[in-house]
Amino acid sequence: MLAMNKIKILGITVITIVATIIVTSCKDKRSTGWEYAPNMYEHIAYDPDQKNDNFKDGKTAQLPPAGTTPLGFVRFDYPNTKDGYEKAGLEVKTTLPQTQANYADGKILFEHFCSPCHGVNGQGDGLVVAHGYPAPPSYSKGQSSRGGAMKDLTDGKIYHTITYGVNAMGSYASQLEPKERWKVIMYVHHLQTL
Ligand code: HEC
């Protein structure tokens, strides 16, 4: 009886050891093991950096065809130069409905993004100016460093300035999407009359 038990225990031990060796002896040490829903790991869509025979250059990541515009992208084909600024000043005009709601949004955006330098009334007396930052000219009484009175700045010139910045003023293109820029411009036009 005792001998039978010993053999049983030995048998179970051997089976356990062999099973453990089989289960843990994966050759690929980076293997994730047993994959649940493997098509989540090995999906059928191409990865951007994967080889792809469907294209002549064999790459998956392709440049968009020349002259195309991504969905929802607003073009602004005026370079960051004095000429680009002047040209935008003549050609680019707002298409934003001049509503009270857009004006109110513009005021809030202006107070968040622009007033620290330009001041809440656009007089170039913002908080950081009080601490020594170069003062921007007043929107209503100042002169633009690019010529002309600040009160005469057009839609396109202000849009160009917000998009690229000018001298001590940085670009706000990554903070304000085109529609928001037009809202701010609506409010700047109001400040030009103060
Ligand atoms: C960090 C401070 C700062 C902030 C913030 C700032 N500006 Fe300016 N801005 C300036 C300075 C300084 C100038 C004058 C630059 C120059 O002409 O040398 C200026 C100039 C301008 C001009 C005149 C450009 C021209 O053609 O002469 C406009 C318009 C303008 N800013 C609009 C804005 C708007 C709109 C915002 C908010 C989205 C804004 N700025 C945020 C500092 C700032």
TrEMBL record:
The keyword Iron applies. Keywords: Heme, Iron, Metal-binding. It comes from the Bacteria. It holds the Pfam family Cytochrome_CBB3. Residues 101-192 form the Cytochrome c domain. InterPro entries: Cyt_c-like_dom (IPR009056), Cyt_c-like_dom_sf (IPR036909). The keyword Iron applies. Gene3D superfamilies: Cytochrome c-like domain. GO terms for molecular function: electron transfer activity; heme binding; metal ion binding. This is Cytochrome C. It comes from Mucilaginibacter xinganensis.
